[in-house]
Amino acid sequence: xxxxxxxxxxxxxxxxxxxxxxxxxxxxxxxxxxxxxxxxxxxxxxxxxxxxxxxxxxxxxxxxxxxxxxx
Length: 71
Fold this sequence. Notes:
The protein is an alpha+beta fold. About 25% of the residues lie in helices and about 40% in strands.
């Protein structure tokens, strides 16, 4: 099992949370609430004979949040 870290930083209101929700839950919500601070989700994806676990940080799109996150 390998871990892939994904940090989504972008402007507010561009659809970061919608993309993460679609990837992790295979669902699209037209009325998704704005992220406050940051959210964290995981998804394990099989690829051939390997498993890849995605560790996804979804930020609120605010510059201060970007500077606060550290790996």
